[in-house]
Every structure is written in C-alpha cells, then in structure tokens.
Amino acid sequence: MSVSQLNEAHEKDNGVAVDRLIDLTSADMDQVNDLILSRADSHVEMVPQLARYLIEAGGKRLRPMLTLASAHVLGNASGNQIKYAAAVEFMHNATLLHDDVVDESDMRRGKPAARKVWGNQASVLVGDFLLGQAFMMMVEAGSLDALDVLSRAAAVIAEGEVLQLAKAGNEDTSEADYMQIIGAKTAKLFEAATEVGVMAGGGSGEKRQAMARYGFELGLAFQLVDDVLDYGLGVGLGKNVGDDLREGKMTLPIILALKDGSELERKTILNALGQEDADDSVVSNVRTILNRRGALEETMSRAHQHVEKAQAALMELPTSLHRDILADVALFCVQRAY
Amino acid sequence: MSVSQLNEAHEKDNGVAVDRLIDLTSADMDQVNDLILSRADSHVEMVPQLARYLIEAGGKRLRPMLTLASAHVLGNASGNQIKYAAAVEFMHNATLLHDDVVDESDMRRGKPAARKVWGNQASVLVGDFLLGQAFMMMVEAGSLDALDVLSRAAAVIAEGEVLQLAKAGNEDTSEADYMQIIGAKTAKLFEAATEVGVMAGGGSGEKRQAMARYGFELGLAFQLVDDVLDYGLGVGLGKNVGDDLREGKMTLPIILALKDGSELERKTILNALGQEDADDSVVSNVRTILNRRGALEETMSRAHQHVEKAQAALMELPTSLHRDILADVALFCVQRAY
Questions:
Q1: Is there a contact between A125 and B44 if contact means CB atoms under 8 Å apart?
Q2: How high is the mean pLDDT of chain A?
Q3: Chain B within 8 Å of A147 (Cβ-Cβ)?
Q4: In this predicted complex, what is the ipTM?
Q5: What global pTM score does this model have?
C-alpha cells in the first residue's frame, strides 16, 4: 500500500479516535487548561505574552491528553494527573521554544515562531521559566517517583537534541543513531506522559512499565511520521516542507535513501542536506529520490510497526474504554502530525 | 572612603576568609566535584565536552561552598548537602550557558565562552541537560521541600533574566526595577543555595529563614559589586570591561548617574548604552561620569549595606565556626567577582 493510500484508508477512523480522546478527557482537560494559563502568568509582562502566544497557538495538546487518559486506565485517578498533564505540556512547550532557536525555525503551529516575534533571547529564557514552572507543579503533586520520571526525561530530551545537532549533515549517521535520537528527543516525553499518568491512577510495577512502553512506542511512531511529513505530506500543518532537509537533519527517509541510492542520487541528497536556502525544486528532487527508493513508504511501515508495539503494550492492562481509545489513538498518531 | 581604598582595605582579610571557607568545605567539596564530573557525563560526546569546558574553567564554586558551609552551621549535616551543592552548581552553570547566548558574550571565566567554541545551539541544549541533571540529583536526595526551593528558584531566575532583557536600554528603569532584577537573577540562587544547605543540616522554621535571608542579601551584594566591576575594577577577572554598557544593561551605577547627571552627561550615557561596538574611549567616558557622580561609590556602599544585612541574619543562628566564616565570606563577596 502506498503512503497516500495508507493516509486515505485511515483518515476517517482516526479523526474519530482523537475526537473520542478529546471527549474522554475534556472534564480533566478544562482544569489542565486553566492551570496552564495561570502558571504561564508572571509579573514580568513578556513572560505570559510569549508563553501564551505559543500555548494558545494550539496544537491538540496530545501529550497532556495522553497523561489524562492514562490516569483513568485503571479506573482510580488520584487527581494528580491534572498537574502532571500541565507539567508535561510545559516541558513540551519549553522544548519547542528552545528547538526553534536551535533550528532557526521561522514557523511554528502555522504562525511565525515566538523567536521571530520576541527574539531568540526571550525564547530561551521563557523556555527556562516554563521548565521551572513544570517542576514546581510536579513538586506540588508531591510524588518523588513522578518527579524522577520527568527530571530524567528533561535530561534525556536535551541529550537527544545535542546528538541530533552533532549528527546534522553527517552521512555516516546510522539507523541506530537515528532511533537513539528520536527515542530521546521525542519518545521519551511521550513515555513520561503516559507513565506519570498511570502513576496518578495508582499504576505500579508491570502496569506502569506497560504504559511507559506504550508511550515510548507511540512517540517513535509519531516522530517517524513527522519525518515523512517533512517531505511534503504535511501541507497545512503549519510546518515548512523541506525544513529538516535544509537543517541537515539525518532522518530515516534520508538514511534509507543514502543506503540504497545510486551514486548520483546520493550526491543529490548530500548536496541538498543543510542547504539553508534550498528552494522547492531542490526539495522536490530529493523527494523524488526518496519515493523512488521507497524510503518514505519504508519509514511509514516502520511507524506502523511501532504502533503495533504500542498497542501490544496496552494489552497488558485490563480492558477498559480508556485502553481501547488509547489503542485507536496510536493509529491516529501515524496519520497526522500535531 | 573611595572604592579603591575600600578594595585595598579589605583585600588581605578577605582572601583569608575565602581560604578558610575552602578549607572548611574541602572534604565535602571533593565529593561534590566528583559528583559534578560524573553527572556532566553522557554517551553523547558533545555534552561532557561542553559541560566540562565550562565547569573546569573554574570559578571558585562559591555557591556550592555556601551550601556546604550552611549544612554544617547547625552541626548535624545529613549528607544530602553533597547532592544539593552539585545541583546548585549545575543550575548556575546552566544559567551561565543560557546567559552567554542571550548576551552574545564572547568571554567567560577568562576563556572564550562555550558558545564561541560549540555554538549557541549546543550551549542552549547542554544548559537544558544540566538543569535536568540538577533536578535528578535533587530527586535522589529525596526532599520535596528542597525541590520546592530549587524549582521555584529556577522559575524566578528566568523571570529575572526576562525582566532584565525587557528593560535593556530603557532609561526609565527605576532602582526598584533594578533591585527586582538582581534579586531574581542572582540573589535567588544564593538564597536557594544557603536555604537547601541549612535544610540538609536539619534547619527549619526561623533558622531556615535566617539562612535564606543571608544568602539573598549576600547575592544582592555580590551582584551590586559585579555591576561596579563591569566598569573597570575587575581587570583580570576574565570579564570584558564595559560589557554591561554595550548590552544596554540598566545597572545601578547607570541608573544613579542618569538620575543625578547633567543633560550632557545623560546624553553621553544614553548614546553609549547598547552600542555593541563601543570602544574603550566610550566606556571610559561613561566611567568618568559614573565616578564624577559618585555612582560607583554609592553602589559599593549599598553593597556593604546588604553585607551587613546578611551578617545580621546569621546572628539568628547559634554561634559556630561555620557561622563566623560565612559572616567573613559575605564581606569578601563585595570585594571580588567570581
């Protein structure tokens, strides 16, 4: 099945899966949204202005919804999931602010990136503020175990970003390097989101591990798809097609095509990688090679494998409405980027 | 007494005060240094390279030494002070990495700033890594109260930096604004350092508050002196004279001189503020005005007032060798910048 057929086949079902997740978490999510707004506040005007600009630009708040749904999967959520979910979203937004500075991104969520409006300096500092606030909320929730999960995630995410930076434009980047990078920079926060969620629902031991594994596999799938979307399937997502290529990011489609491509194809790709001002025709030429070598399809296929692993992890939990919806959401995540 | 006379008068005594602090904390500090090195490590090569470049450049590690001395002030340190001290130093180094990006600094601790060697991108990300590691160590120490102190400090420090950025070059910046900025960006971490220190030594209630107040007042004094040193007393400290002026920072010497200065003096200062390529003669002209208006002396005099408040706070604790050395160290801190 081609990528576009895959997209088409699941589009309808998956919209429904996310709508069900939204419905399922809406009561908790109202509290999370209130908490997010109040904790993004500060007597220093520029802080809430910048933070809200990013936060209110939306995104579907997938990560906090995952935390909330995970908290209810065992049927006895403590209430701590509200603070955990807000903390996870703050960590995510802090990462976005710093990433946009690191990647020199112009756009985020369909609007000019915060750094284009307030500058790199304020973006770095407000990211730090949000991280501090995230930890304050975690401390208030009062669980050292959950704090351990999130502080570890913060360090691992940063390590993943550094590794990605170190590997930028490096044609020797292996598939294993790539999996290590996306495991750290993306999947670790999904893992933390679902892990602290189920912990707020009284989950421990194998159940906690299963929910952590679900989040991690889902995060891998999510990033694999994101890296496919960057080559042109993600029109209208507020992302610039070809950004990864221009930034020299060694994503799986590139790694696969470099492995299988002809000398000429390899040369075309390597010339384009990291070319900051690469125009549409350059991106289009690379995309043609990626398609010809089946690199986008193969990447999508691997994403589906990780979705299956995510769903298998859920099977270790007792059956419930929340569990079923999380299983469907995993499939949705390979279809759309947030 | 002029600034240079003040310097001269205390130079000898204060060197001794810090040497005594170093001796006093050396057994603990060996453990802290080991912990710092091991926690700056990562399988991602660039992380320890960059982190160690900064960490090993030195600085006297004043903040962790304050944590250690504060832990022993009541005579029954738990051992947690080792992790707290390392966490405080990591938070400080994370802040330095981000500040140097924000300020576009070229030098730090007498060497090219990390961002000049590894770039802004890696500096932002390794700062994030160190912050994550700081929280992991705090979690391991297992005190939610201490975590509360440090997570709050992280958020407040970032707010202070944003406020400083928002006020850069703004001639209406008041003394109150300035005190708010340095309270947040500098004094808050000194406060946290001594507060978690005494907590590791079993301090609570009024004793904990007194040590927090000591740290905060000491931090204010430290920053006031730092802002004087930027106008030329700090030769050999690895700092570029005039950096604050070039960055448009509204420090107290500038605020005082703008208040008292003639129209011509005000104009000279305002023209120079934020002039990125201001040469030595521009800085020298501003310094002449600051001296003529007594702005540097007045700033030093205020620093001494805060040292006195810091020392007064210590008097609420039982007498001890550690307490006496901390009192002397406060005086030292107004003499030298680290």
A1: no
A2: 91
A3: yes
A4: 0.93
A5: 0.93
